[in-house]
């Protein structure tokens, strides 16, 4: 069997509910025959699995690196430990309370951390972890300081009871196993929902995500909150396993350890994290020699993994994770490809740009530009390189706030609204370089376009409630219609990174259409397309016009534009130098001098 087929078979096995249930049931029953030490190590494995999922969510999905996750783990551990020991709170309550507190800490951290990226984000999260560590060390009265906090009710000390019932090591393992299974199911459901797709979209490009109505700020807040909750849950479960909390358990090495587990497992893959957490917990515990040099071993494994297995264990053994729930996909058949979804919402609004000026320092990129894009009409925006065309699209779509002027859509002032709010106002754009999620399939990318139309709650998504699946299936039916319209049905399940440029461009147009825009701004959609692809694109643009959308089309191919457009606006050095129809433009001396040159004169002659 080839490696690919083996990976496919393994992935199907791991994803199969029956396999998952059988594994959980076997462990639930089988643990009774294992030694106390093995059961304890297995409980550590489960806690590491939950902890790794918290990094998987924040770093693997949302792309936010964290070097301070031991802080959340510690908040969970101390909160539950202190509540249970010092205040006699039942562990059934103290553990959820600890996860909640860590979630609040995650939410709070998201405000400063959400504003920075890359090395600054790494430093900020490192700082968070260090602050937590210092607080624990210094706050003697509450945490016991460097002397630690002993006597937490725990399975190991045989002092643990939950809801009044004594809990031994085996029972505690069984409880933690059920909690872990629940976490994994919820994580999988979330990943394959609008939430998982949005998290991954901001990971790849916040600008592209904003253009289809996904707010980067709020999405990051959600990622930090959920990740904090998972890390806090893992920490609380750890506290009631070991019975003693000392600051060293929550220092930098633990943050590094969980990051290594996640990276080696394969960021983004739930199953990969499980395998990696098992490997990393089991081996050092089993092989005492190895345990002594744990961090040297981690360093070697990480270096080896990054060189040989850049996608981690998951990349070696499993197919990449998918972001649509198969059950939702199956339900699509009920609706069939649904072109009416597009037509039902058809119609456009008029977009008015009034005396917009955009300065970058001393450079005036747009100088009192005014234009109007009417519904059911195609307006071309042309001009030489650097004349300000993309800047105008960026200003309209909320990437830049204009230095002066006003933008109105359907009579409403939208000047200075953020990019995702512009998308919510149903002005959608495409980019000069297609900005799709390269790891997603074409279908997943298109469904991402419908993000703002999926209204079900995060809880419904996490529990994969029928209402959530039904809504996804409806939008998937619309995706089918757009796939047919854009001639992408044959490549619907191909990963975008494997597709040629022209196909990606068309997929981006399709994604924009899924957002049900009333105005669409296409920034050089024909660049790099073959003749046949350009013909197809022209037909799609005509279809959009027939739907009544207001269309602004930037392009340099005069023949392509001549057959399509109703109005033309020409920019030169940030100023409008022509407004009218395309034949008038071709004769205009100012346009010929600034843009078309001799070529146009010959062509016209
Ligand atoms: N973020 C920015 N910061 C500084 N200058 C910018 C920025 N964005 C655009 N510019 C400048 O504004 C001017 C207009 O650029 P813009 O990209 O809008 O032109 P364009 O007409 O779209 O060109 P092209 O056809 O090559 O895409 C250029 O001089 C460019 O260097």
TrEMBL record:
It holds the Pfam family ABC_tran. GO terms for molecular function: ATP binding; ATP hydrolysis activity; branched-chain amino acid transmembrane transporter activity. The chain crosses the membrane at residues 12-35, 41-58, 65-85, 91-111, 118-136, 156-186, 198-218, 224-246, 258-283, 295-318. It is a multi-pass membrane protein. InterPro entries: AAA+_ATPase (IPR003593), ABC_transp_permease (IPR001851), ABC_transporter-like_ATP-bd (IPR003439), LivM-like (IPR043428), P-loop_NTPase (IPR027417). Keywords: ATP-binding, Cell membrane, Membrane, Nucleotide-binding, Transmembrane, Transmembrane helix. SUPFAM superfamilies: P-loop containing nucleoside triphosphate hydrolases. One of its GO terms (cellular component) is plasma membrane. It is found in: Cell membrane. Residues 351-598 form the ABC transporter domain. PANTHER family: HIGH-AFFINITY BRANCHED-CHAIN AMINO ACID TRANSPORT PROTEIN BRAE, HIGH-AFFINITY BRANCHED-CHAIN AMINO ACID TRANSPORT SYSTEM PERMEASE. This is Branched-chain amino acid ABC transporter permease. It comes from Caldovatus sediminis. The lineage of its organism: Bacteria, Pseudomonadati, Pseudomonadota, Alphaproteobacteria, Acetobacterales.
């Amino acid at each position: 069997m080839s490696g690919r087929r083996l990976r496919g078979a393994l992935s199907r096995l791991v994803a199969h509910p029956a396999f998952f249930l059988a594994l959980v049931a076997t462990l639930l029953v089988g643990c009774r025959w294992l030694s106390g030490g093995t059961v304890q190590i297995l409980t550590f494995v489960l806690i590491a699995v939950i902890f790794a999922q918290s990094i998987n969510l924040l770093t693997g999905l949302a792309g936010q690196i964290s070097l301070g996750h031991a802080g959340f783990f510690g908040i969970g551990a101390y909160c539950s430990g202190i509540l249970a020991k010092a205040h006699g709170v039942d562990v059934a309550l103290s553990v959820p309370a600890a996860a909640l507190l860590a979630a609040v800490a995650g939410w709070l951290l998201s405000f400063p951390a959400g504003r920075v990226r890359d090395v600054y984000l790494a430093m900020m999260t490192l700082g968070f972890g260090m602050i937590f560590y210092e607080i624990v060390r210094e706050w003697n009265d509450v945490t016991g300081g460097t002397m630690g906090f002993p006597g937490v009710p725990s399975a190991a000390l045989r002092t643990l009871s939950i809801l009044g019932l004594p809990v031994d090591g085996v029972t505690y393992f069984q409880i933690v196993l059920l909690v872990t299974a629940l976490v994994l199911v919820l994580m999988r459901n979330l990943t394959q929902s609008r939430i998982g797709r949005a998290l991954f979209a901001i990971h790849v490009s916040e600008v592209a995500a904003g253009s289809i109505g996904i707010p980067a700020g709020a999405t990051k807040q959600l990622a930090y909150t959920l990740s904090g909750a998972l890390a806090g849950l893992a920490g609380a479960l750890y506290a009631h396993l070991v019975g003693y909390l000392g600051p060293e358990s929550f220092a930098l090495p633990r943050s590094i350890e969980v990051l290594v587990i996640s990276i080696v497992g394969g960021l983004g893959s739930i199953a990969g994290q499980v395998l990696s957490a098992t490997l990393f917990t089991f081996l050092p515990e089993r092989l005492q020699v190895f345990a002594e040099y744990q961090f040297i071993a981690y360093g070697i494994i990480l270096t080896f993994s990054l060189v040989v297995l850049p996608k981690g264990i998951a990349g070696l053994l499993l197919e990449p994770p998918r972001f649509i729930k198969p059950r939702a996909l199956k339900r699509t058949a009920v609706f069939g490809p649904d072109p009416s979804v597009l037509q039902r919402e058809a119609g456009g609004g008029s977009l008015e740009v009034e005396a917009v000026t955009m300065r970058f320092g001393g450079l005036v990129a747009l100088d009192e530009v005014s234009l109007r894009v009417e519904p059911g009409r195609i307006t071309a925006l042309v001009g030489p390189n650097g004349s300000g065309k993309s800047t105008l699209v960026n200003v309209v779509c909320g990437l830049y706030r204009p230095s002066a002027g006003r933008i109105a859509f359907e009579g409403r002032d939208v000047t200075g609204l953020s990019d995702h709010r512009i998308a919510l106002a149903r002005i959608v754009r495409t980019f000069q370089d297609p900005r799709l999620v390269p790891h997603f399939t074409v279908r997943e990318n298109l469904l991402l376009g419908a993000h703002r139309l999926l209204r079900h709650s995060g809880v419904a998504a996490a529990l994969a409630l029928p209402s959530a699946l039904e809504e996804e299936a409806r939008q998937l039916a619309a995706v089918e219609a757009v796939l047919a319209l854009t001639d992408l049905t044959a490549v619907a399940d191909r990963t975008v990174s494997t597709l040629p440029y022209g196909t990606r461009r068309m997929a981006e147009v399709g994604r924009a259409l899924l957002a049900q825009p009333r105005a669409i701004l296409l920034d050089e959609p024909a660049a790099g397309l073959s003749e046949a692809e350009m013909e197809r694109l022209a037909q799609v643009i005509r279809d959009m016009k027939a739907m009544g959308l207001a269309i602004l089309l930037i392009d340099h191919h005069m023949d392509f534009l001549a057959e399509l457009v109703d109005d033309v606006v020409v920019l030169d050095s940030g100023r409008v130098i022509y407004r009218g129809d395309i034949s008038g433009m071709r004769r205009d001396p100012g346009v010929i001098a600034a843009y078309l040159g001799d070529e146009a004169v010959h062509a016209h002659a």
